[in-house]
Structure of IclR family transcriptional regulator:
Amino acid sequence: MAAKPSTGGEGAAPGSQTLLRGLAILEAVAAGARDLAGLASALGTTRSTTHRLAAALVEQRYLTFAPRDGYGLGPKLLELGFRAQQAAPVTRVARPHLERLSEACGDTIHLGVLEGDWALYLDKLPGRRRIEISSRVGERQPVWSTGLGKALILDLDEARWRHFHHLGEARGGHDPDLETWLARMRAYAARGIAYDREENEPEVRCVAAPIRDASGAIVAAFSVTSTVQYMDEVRMEDLAGTVREAARAICRDLGWQDLGWQDLGRPAIGWAE
Amino acid sequence: MAAKPSTGGEGAAPGSQTLLRGLAILEAVAAGARDLAGLASALGTTRSTTHRLAAALVEQRYLTFAPRDGYGLGPKLLELGFRAQQAAPVTRVARPHLERLSEACGDTIHLGVLEGDWALYLDKLPGRRRIEISSRVGERQPVWSTGLGKALILDLDEARWRHFHHLGEARGGHDPDLETWLARMRAYAARGIAYDREENEPEVRCVAAPIRDASGAIVAAFSVTSTVQYMDEVRMEDLAGTVREAARAICRDLGWQDLGWQDLGRPAIGWAE
DNA sequence: GAACAAGATCCCAATATATGGGATCAGATG
DNA sequence: CATCTGATCCCATATATTGGGATCTTGTTC
């Protein structure tokens, strides 16, 4: 609907208009655009230009096109997405353990890593409850307000903790004030487990644990999420044990595999900025 | 290494060189290219051009770049890939059932649909065996030689079966001759289960079943794959029952959900050409 | 059953856009 | 400290992209 200027964006790199427009088409389709007209208005280009780019994307299997239904995301994205997921060794290693955990607890499970100032979701296991946790693999979530995010920064010093809390305030986060939040973080760090008792969203609670590689550095984290009706205090305590157990098993797998991380100062996964 | 001509390809659509080059970068990175020089030589462009495109892809989060490690596939691909997978309702619905099946049998499980003349892999569950089945989500496999492919075309008439066998011959397929293959297909169709007794690759066997939606049309299929040492005749017969059971459960879930497929003549998934 | 409508596809001259040679910069290596 | 590898930036040039409109296809209406 909004007509973005051709040479748009914030600090948009020039010299790639065509590529940028092509990617914009991908995202417009992901956002639900089905026909040419929709795409054209979404990026503010003419029908012919849009068609040419879309056709190229279809030909390369990045999009599908069916006369009746219009455009859809194509198999190539499936392939690249899957490869991107596998690129982080954590995902492969953690999967079976998380599946077992999912089977055992029935709640939604997320796996994620720290990407810059954000928590990036690498994997998601839906769980058996009715409720649907609204999150997507590949999405970024704030660090300070999610259980998973907090688990990711458990090892950082207080200066850096303040930084993350500050990021939250900038975005209108009013929830726990700095001191309360820091106190909780200290408690989480001491236990090696992070909770989220409806601090972020009402009704939603979760238990999260960090995953460490052979060097002991936190390279990822996972969380078990549910609504409060399935997550009273007692259950959270129970889960803490189960979760810690799963985390330990994953860490063991990461520590044993000799993929040779020559540079132990950097996270083993490929997403850090 | 091979320098593809800029305006390359077969019936390559013109008017999108920049976009096509950008996508080529994505694939080069997926194929393992890490640095600018590698990318540049992979697509036959100069450093500066390559750098500009790659930088745009990084900025859009389609690639990651870390000074030491070079380029990698980015989170945006993760997101789009995941969305593409979810676009086919079958994946969502089948997942939990396949996970249970995977848990029970320990073998590699694939889920796929028919895309034109190919079997497209939508999902893969690794299994607990040592062996790694070389297949990737998003990849296309021939229909006639894979168990999954055969399960997908169980409902088609013999003319169309011949068509698929013919496609195989064109690509140097010499395995079972037409009549033998047709006879097997008839048997598979009668049982509602397709086998692959090392017909495709030596040592590799699999048991596959079709998945039908509310209209009764085959919209997908899944297969349980393993090496012959885990797959003797007795086990294949056993598995047939388990597999059929899982298929029935998935079909039931597909039949019950009222997502309103107004057009029953077309497959419910979005991948058909 | 024929005219209509909606949408996709194709074509071509004008020009905004991408290109790549080379210069520069960052930081690793000896 | 000099050297090297590899990333980043700049700018005149050529060329690939653009978009207006004509055309074709397919489904809908009267």
Residues 17-18, 45-49, 52, 67 of chain A lie near DNA strand D (CB under 10 Å from a C1'). Chain A has two domains: 17-78, 88-256.
